[in-house]
């Protein structure tokens, strides 16, 4: 069974992932409605990745005998003026997600929960990849991708 502190930290991060997923879905839908089909697909892939990651975390918690609670989500913006602004907002959210993940990993290390740390260490690499992708998409959006 996971320590309460670890369960809470994992649950919090999974909730942040879900919010980020829905935020990216909102951005994707907005981009698609404005004719930015390729940008929309890239952002929608982030949505799918974040949903899958959050489910993996919730399953991990359940595997350890605890039921994680999914918390309410605050409002998600649905409109953006330009494609560049939309992708920039996705990058800002991704950077926040990276900070939240680094905080989670710090908690895992401080608690000496090396198994959980090792299980989710791949998320750090994926966050870096998302930051790189979004930076490239911002450049592309400036050129009507």
The helix-strand sequence is HHHHH
What is the global morphology?
Answer: elongated
Mean of the pLDDT scores? 92
Main beta-sheet strand count, sense and barrel state = none
The portion of residues assigned to helices is over 70%
User: Spans of 5+ residues with little confidence (pLDDT < 50)?
Assistant: none
Helical/strand content category: mainly alpha
What Rg do the Cα atoms give?
16 Å
Helix count equals 5
Strand runs, count: 0
- End-to-end separation in angstroms reads 48 Å
Beta content comes to under 5%
What would you note in describing this structure?
The protein has 145 residues and is mainly alpha-helical. Helix 1 runs antiparallel to helix 2, helix 2 runs antiparallel to helix 5 and helix 3 packs antiparallel against helix 5. The radius of gyration is 16 Å and the shape is elongated. The termini are far apart.
